[in-house]
Amino acid sequence: MRNMGNVAITRDPKWPSAATLLKERPVEGRRNVGLIGISTHATSVTERSSTSTPSAIRAALERYSTWSFSEAIDIAETVGLVDFGDVDSPDTEGGAARVAAALSGWDPSIALRLILGGDNAATWLALRALSGGDYSNFGLVTLDAHLDMRDGVSNGSPVRQLLEDGLDGHHVVQVGLADFSNSPAYARRAHDAGVTVISRDVLHHEPVEEAARRAVAIAGAGGRHVYVDIDMDAADLMAVPACPAAAPGGLSADEMRRFVRAISVQHGVVAIDITEIDVERDSADQRTVRLAALLVLETLAGVRRRLQWP
Question: How do residues 251-261 score in pLDDT, each as one tens digit?
Answer without folding.
Answer: 999 999 999 99
